Amino acid sequence: MRDVTFTSRDVAEHTKPHPGWVVISITDPRQPLAKIQEGWHAVLRVQFFDTGVPMTNPIAPLIMEKYPPITPATAEKIALFILQHQDKNFLVHCEAGISRSAGVAMAIHDTFGHPLRIMDRYDFMNSYVHQLVYRALEVIASPPCVKYADECD
Q1: Torsional class of 89: left (φ above 0), alpha (ψ -120 to 50), beta (otherwise)
Q2: CB-CB contact of 124 with 149 (8 Å)
Q3: What's the first-to-final CA gap in the chain, in angstroms?
Q4: Any idea what the Cα angle at residue 129 is, between residues 29 and 102, rounded to 5°?
């Protein structure tokens, strides 16, 4: 069974590469990319802020404009990378290793049942990140039936 580990940027930058592992590197758009060591099977780099404020919050539009969250397009990019490497182990990191990375890691776990490993502390996941990545995985992994209607499950 494959593992999914989520952690902080600092730990990910100092983790020795493993050839059977892939990295999903999540950084803030206004920060430099993480210095992931060479030697991993593959690395996906994405940038988005740790936001996802419910639109019922009156200041949500201001927060979303200044600190844009993950987009459906980014979630789809992450989902495609996950599906392309679903036979590998995953190391997912963000700045603190408790919110965005946890959301992606939990989406992998919920889709494939890979056990979660936590290298740092875990306080809470970003449920908006989880929701978008999980939905993207569902849509991409289960394309609609294009046969005759009575042949679809």
Answers
A1: beta
A2: no
A3: 28
A4: 95
Q: For residues 99 and 126, is the Cβ–Cβ distance under 8 A? A: yes
CA proximity to 107, closest of 131, 87, 90, 85: 131
User: Model confidence over 87-104: pLDDT tens digits?
Assistant: 999 999 999 988 999 999
pLDDT, one tens digit per residue, over 103-136 is 999 999 889 887 777 655 555 789 899 999 999 9
| Torsion-angle region of 35 (φ positive above 0: left; ψ -120 to 50: alpha; else: beta) | beta
- The pTM for the full model equals 0.86
Name the residue among 81, 80, 128, 78 with its Cα closest to residue 103: 128
